[in-house]
Amino acid sequence: xxxxxxxxxxxxxxxxxxxxxxxxxxxxxxxxxxxxxxxxxxxxxxxxxxxxxxxxxxxxxxxxxxxxxxxxxxxxxxxxxxxxxxxxxxxxxxxxxxxxxxxxxxxxxxxxxxxxxxxxxxxxxxxxxxxxxxxxxxxxxxxxxxxxxxxxxxxxxxxxxxxxxxxxxxxxxxxxxxxxxxxxxxxxxxxxxxxxxxxxxxxxxxxxxxxxxxxxxxxxxxxxxxxxxxxxxxxxxxxxxxxxxxxxxxxxxxxxxxxxxxxxxxxxxxxxxxxxxxxxxxxxxxxxxxxxxxxxxxxxxxxxxxxxxxxxxxxxxxx
Length: 319
Description:
Shape: globular
Helix content: over 70%
Largest sheet: 2 strands, antiparallel
Number of strands: 2
Radius of gyration: 27 Å
Order of helices and strands: HEEHHHHHHHHHHHH
Strand content: under 5%
Strand order of the largest sheet: 1-2
């Protein structure tokens, strides 16, 4: 009887301690439920449905017919356009991402200088990111026009006969890359914020050691910016492999896009054509999962390599 009374207060104390934790957990799930429901319904559910549809033949009008891995086999062995599309996407991504990153670092470095009217320049750099991609694409269609375009008219002042940018298979991808470099405003602002967060005493110590502007930029600014560069790199790769609006507007002729001769066709526009132009929803789902695997592999590769070049201020590395 006495032992039972001695144990009762301890169990009551444990129950009383669990009650606040249970209430906190209940409030957490209650407040997070809109996001959880949205993720399950709008993201996870469609992903699982797409995984199933990639194993079927479905034209949106009849019931899906199970075909197993036939869509993937056809994609890699019997679809020569897919390999050209994959090459176009890789060419665009592996050129546009480094160029935009280099341009972003350079512009951010200049905007971080004590220049008169720098707020105006910062606004001008960020403004293109606020313009809808549709409007930007229409603007560049005019700028890339062979005869009356602004770019070729400017080249003509120096006696250079500009190419038919969007109508030439050799120049259409460089034209699209120029459009991507135009929209570096967000990356520049992130890098500029990172530069302003670098402690001044690091530059003072470097100057006392005799480091010039280039040495300070190389050994102080760049290492301290590597977390921001890492973020921009991951987001840039994901965005480049999913480019769509520019292709749809700048290379479309009302019936198809990606011209001339599929020279500018990328993975997402190719997926769009099969899904909503040809009604090959199962085949389009297989393309989507191939794109997902490619992006996952590239992202993991960048993350795994980040330990070799990304530096965090509070990080202590053991040699």
